[in-house]
Structure formats: structure tokens, C-alpha cells
């Protein structure tokens, strides 16, 4: 018989830095076999979701969020988040009892390093008062939309300034000899 391989995590200390992610291609330099294992794990998590996750997913399914949709158990880089909105660069993580805090901090650092904001919500809060949770999520979405608009405006201004500087640099004064 062959031994079945499982995913192993390296020991992480509280002061461990987030691994450097290079946003290249499909998996951010993650091997195809590792990426497939992550997707299989996410699929398994979908099948056996917690009651809090199911309740929030049901509300997201009913809500009209326009172009902002949240994908359940999304693989982002080498992490699996409970909900991810790609358009906003926002992830929602449901904090369940028994979660590994060091692993969560490391995942959050990795996601923040590539511009994804992580919002933590306690499972008990979702089950006790989902309307307040949805208000918090909506407020977080509004902040993220405002951040994106500000960043987009700054990028456009930078591009205009660079273009103007380039045009000034190419105009050489005429020398009359």
C-alpha cells in the first residue's frame, strides 16, 4: 500500500514574515500540484461549510451587489479565504473557534502585501445578528470602493504628469548657429 500524502505547513512563529508573493500568472509561482490541492481543499470546505458560512453565503446570494460579487472559499495565492470579491480586492474571513491565529496572521500579511484587504468576522456574530454583520461588510465595501477610486485617480494623475514630463524632455531648444 502507498501512504497518502497530505499538505504540510511549516512551523510559523509570531514574528514570521509573510512569504514574498510574486503576482505572476495563475498561481503566483505556486506549483500546479499545490494549486490543485488548494482547489480540492476549497471544494471540500464548500461541501462541509459551517452554519455561519452557510448563513452569510445565503444572504450574499440574495443580495444585489451589482458588479461586486463574493466567491465562496476562494483560492487567493496560496490561501483559501471564506469569501473573496476580486473586483474590490477584499476578502472576508469567518473566525471560527479553534482557528490557528499564527497561520491566520501569516495569511493576512501575504494577502495585504498584494493589496487584498482582509475583514474578520466572528462566526457567533453572523449567527446572532447577521444584519449588523452585513452593515459592517457594506461599510467595508464602501471604504474599499473609495480607496480604489482614490488610487485610480492618483494613477491617472501620475500618468498625465509622466506624459507631460516626457513631452517636455523631448522638446529640445533650437540652436541657431
TrEMBL record:
Gene3D superfamilies: VSR Endonuclease. InterPro entries: DUF559 (IPR007569), Endonuclease_DUF559_bact (IPR047216). Residues 1-25, 149-177 are annotated as: Disordered. It comes from the Bacteria. Coiled coil: none annotated. Residues 38-139 form the DUF559 domain. This is DUF559 domain-containing protein.
Amino acid at each position: 500500500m502507498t501512504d497518502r500524502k497530505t499538505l504540510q505547513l511549516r512551523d510559523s512563529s509570531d514574528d514570521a514574515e509573510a512569504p514574498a508573493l510574486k503576482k505572476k500568472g495563475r498561481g503566483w509561482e505556486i506549483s500546479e500540484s499545490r494549486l490543485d490541492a488548494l482547489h480540492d481543499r476549497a471544494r471540500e470546505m464548500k461541501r462541509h461549510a459551517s452554519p455561519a458560512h452557510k448563513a452569510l453565503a445565503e444572504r450574499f446570494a440574495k443580495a444585489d451587489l451589482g458588479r461586486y460579487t463574493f466567491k465562496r472559499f476562494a483560492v487567493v495565492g496560496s490561501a483559501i479565504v471564506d469569501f473573496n470579491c476580486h473586483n474590490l480586492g477584499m476578502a472576508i474571513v469567518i473566525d471560527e473557534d479553534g482557528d490557528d491565529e499564527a497561520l491566520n496572521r501569516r495569511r493576512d500579511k501575504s494577502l495585504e502585501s498584494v493589496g487584498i484587504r482582509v475583514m474578520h468576522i466572528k462566526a457567533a456574530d453572523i449567527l446572532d445578528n447577521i444584519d449588523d454583520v452585513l452593515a459592517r461588510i457594506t461599510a467595508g465595501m464602501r471604504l474599499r470602493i473609495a480607496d480604489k477610486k482614490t488610487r485610480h485617480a492618483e494613477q491617472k494623475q501620475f500618468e498625465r504628469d509622466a506624459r507631460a514630463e516626457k513631452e517636455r524632455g523631448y522638446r529640445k531648444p533650437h540652436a541657431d548657429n
